[in-house]
Amino acid sequence: MTAKKILILDHNQIQQKINRIAHQILEDNFGEDEIILAGVVARGYRLALRLKDVLNKIADFKITIIKLELEKDSSKLESKIDVTLASCENKVIILVDDVLNSGRTLAYGLGVFLNIPLKKLRSVVLVNRSHKNFPVATDFVGLELSTVLKEHVSVILDENGEEDGVYLK
């Protein structure tokens, strides 16, 4: 027997959240020449691509996307990015992920950039579940969602022909 999926956000609602977050990023970075969106593979990266599409329409600054791969279940920071860390120095970095649950992924993602000088480091999540085990907070949130620990939030973004959606299982 499969668990019942409850639709929390549909495609249009997800796009509304992305549009709002993009405007918040624009306001927070007014006057910047460039920002870097660091998308956590896989859905954080897809979300970063969508944010870039909206930002390209409303912002004058250059938007660079980087792919950040993290070993999320490791007890220590293990990461890989598709650019050199030196190319991120003295820039605005915005870490992007789909769901903030325990905070481990966000903490590890932030840790990647801690040893280089930055203008600022911000974070974006589409859904914040508020079950943090790590002392992290996010700067831009699409939806704050109160859940119980045994529930699972699933984000679908352009995957295997499935319609976009945020589901609670």
From TrEMBL:
User: Which UniProt keywords are present, listed alphabetically?
Assistant: Glycosyltransferase, Transferase
> Where is the Phosphoribosyltransferase domain positioned along the sequence?
8-155
Q: Which SUPFAM superfamilies does the protein's record reference?
A: PRTase-like
Family matches, as Gene3D superfamilies: 3.40.50.2020
Pfam families, per the entry: Pribosyltran (PF00156)
Entry's Gene Ontology molecular function annotations: glycosyltransferase activity
User: What domain of life does the UniProt record list for this protein's source?
Assistant: Bacteria
Check the record and name the InterPro entries matching this protein. Answer: PRTase-like, PRTase_dom, PyrR_bifunctional
Could you identify this protein by its name?
A: Phosphoribosyltransferase
Q: Which organism is it from?
A: Pedobacter segetis
